[in-house]
Amino acid sequence: MERKNAWKKYTKEQIEEIFEFCEDYKDFISNCKTERECVTETVRMAEQSGYKDLKDCIENNIPLKAGDKVYINYMGKAIALFQLGTQPLEKGMNILGAHIDSPRIDLKQNPLYEDTDIALLDTHYYGGIKKYQWVTLALALHGVVAKKDGTVVNIVIGEDENDPVVGISDLLAHLSADQMAKKASVVIEGEDLNVCVGSMPLISDDEGEKKEKELVKANILAILKEKYDIEEEDFLSAEIEVVPAGKARDYGLDRSMIFGYGQDDRVCAYTSLAAMLQMEQTTKTNVCLLVDKEEIGSVGATGMHSKFFENAVAEVMNLMGDYSELKVRRALANSKMLSSDVSAAYDPNYGSVMEKKNSAYFGRGIVFNKYTGARGKSGSNDANAEYLGELRRIMDKHDVNFQTAELGKVDQGGGGTIAYILAQYGMEVIDSGVALHNMHAPWEISSKVDVYEAMRGYRAFLLEA
Ligand code: MN
Ligand code: MN
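Above: inputs. Below: predicted complex with manganese (II) ion.
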């Protein structure tokens, strides 16, 4: 039961279209390397497509009706888009969901220190990373500093080609006898992921200043003060993420793949959003839900466990003049969802952890994972066979290449997604998405035709489910 390679169905002209779509995707992941940057860009794209801010509608009591398009920006880190259908909301929605947070390294609250005339930033990594992959790379700083007076300073350092980059050092090969004998999980330890940011003392004409200690750190603080008007204490209320510096690029001599940071899960977020923004009005209400904190368990106010989405559904129904507690519950229970997250694409270099009949492959289209989980499917949302049957019909009708897969061999490991959280409402949910090589590494790889088929699959779902 081998699945077909999607490239083969396309003409040269169509392949150019695929590549063009992927240029926009590459721009998105090159410019949006934090959940906040993803939300800001999503708002921009949504407004361009005629979406209005739900918060404005609530505040000004603006009624909503079929055909209207609204979004809710939740704390700048999660967002939901609604395109209202002609059918009452209680009949259910078609929901595309994905997460926009990615594995990375966060600065600690008190990060800056000096050691032997080197200025460093202390960090706490975020999500499941292999720490040894993050040393000796060009890294960038992205994030916000919230000052006491309420102003929020945006920071991006290391992306412009004239910007400096920062990085985490590794031990030289010549002195690595002890290090090389260690287990890979402790070759680089979490507490040692310190980002080097400077080595030059503050140059000053002031004799008193010259005698002060820690002048390298003082110099960094002077630069931050001058460029961003921030003080050392302002780090206490900052969210700064250390991410790989540089743009996404074509990968492979045939340019068939994309090499980029944060494709888990922005590849599903972007393709879901692209499908959503292209949609004409349908009978059912369409939703695109992009959330934060998946990589650390979907917790917090902007993670999928938060009630912000349920509350937004209630607000939308209220503005449509159709609210009751029971109707909100029905709207959620009657919904269908593609909960999209990345899958592991079969990698010939690491074939031993995969079971070939039930692996995802580059080039074979959007992936459906009936279940995920580990140790006997534990923690997984096991989608209903009937729902999968419906999805097969929809994908085949629209000639979308799809494949089914598990994440690796039984008992080899596993992973979770947001699927089970939405399933708690009683709606039909399945894990779907795009397969990657290098998942959770600084640079992840996707196949261009899979990115394209995912977008086509989402569009087909919104039209037909
Ligand atoms: Mn993910
Ligand atoms: Mn992940």
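The longest strand covers residues 104-115.
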